[in-house]
Amino acid sequence: MSEDTDDSPLTQDQIFHLLQNERRRAVLRYLAQTDEDSVRMRDVAEQVAAWENDTTVQQLHSDERQRVYIALYQTHLPKLDDEGVIEYNQSRGIVAPTAHAAQLYPFIETDSHDAATSTQETAEFADGPEAPDEGADNDLAWSNYYLGLSSASALLLGATSLSLVPAALISSYLLSVLTVAAFGITALGQRFL
């Protein structure tokens, strides 16, 4: 159990470091959704394993449970405890969130947490001009554009290779230059638009 009783808020670097791991985020998601003051570590591990394997706790295999249990026991829960986010009694197998855990909840997707509040707080924290959901839609549009560009390049390359397009109209060197240029211009557009 952590002996650090520092009540100062977590720094931005601490928050990013703690949230960089999916299993730690899943632990926090579980704690945000429970109404209990403390929970059994086994219950946390089973739910995290169920989420990771896209199944229910009842349908988990023992190796799926064990893999997550060991990682939480040895690494992730002690890390959260060291940072003062949880109180982890390893010998009793009990996990209890602290006030610092509440500082991380706005960054965790939960069923019980208001998504609009989470998006607003995340954008304010990062000092970014757009909410994360807007960026996800933008990334999807760019990925569709890249997919179309790849398909068109593959078709043109295939047509040239099969001599469906006369070699006098387009050489393989010119095709390569055009393809690289198209992807380069698209990447610049994505970066600066």
Polypeptide structure, described:
The protein is mainly alpha-helical and 193 residues long. It has two domains: 12-126, Arc Repressor Mutant, subunit A, CATH 1.10.10; 132-192. It is built from eight helices and three strands. A three-stranded antiparallel sheet has the order 1-3-2. It is elongated and about 75 Å long. Residues 1-5 and 112-136 have low confidence and may be disordered.
Outline the fold blueprint.
Layout: H1 12-19, H2 22-33, E1 39-40, H3 41-52, H4 62-82, E2 86-89, E3 94-97, H5 99-104, H6 115-126, H7 132-161, H8 172-192
Antiparallel strand pairs: 1-3, 2-3
Helix pairs in contact: 2-3, 3-4, 7-8
Outline of the structure:
The protein has 193 residues and is mostly helical. It has 2 domains: 12-126, Arc Repressor Mutant, subunit A (Orthogonal Bundle); 132-192.
Low-pLDDT runs: 1-5, 112-136
Question: Could you estimate the helical fraction of the residues in percent?
Answer: 55-70%
- The overall strand count is 3
- The residue-averaged pLDDT reads 78
Provide the gyration radius in Å. Answer: 24 Å
Determine the structural class based on helices, strands and strand pairing: mainly alpha
Portion in strands: 5-15%
- From the coordinates shown, what is the CATH architecture of the largest domain? Orthogonal Bundle
The arrangement of helices and strands along the chain is HHEHHEEHHHH
Task: Provide the CATH topology of the largest domain.
Answer: Arc Repressor Mutant, subunit A
Number of domains: 2
Largest sheet: 3 strands, antiparallel
**CATH class wording of the largest domain:** Mainly Alpha
User: Number of helical segments?
Assistant: 8
Shape: elongated
The multimeric state of the shown protein is single chain
Terminal Cα span: 48 Å
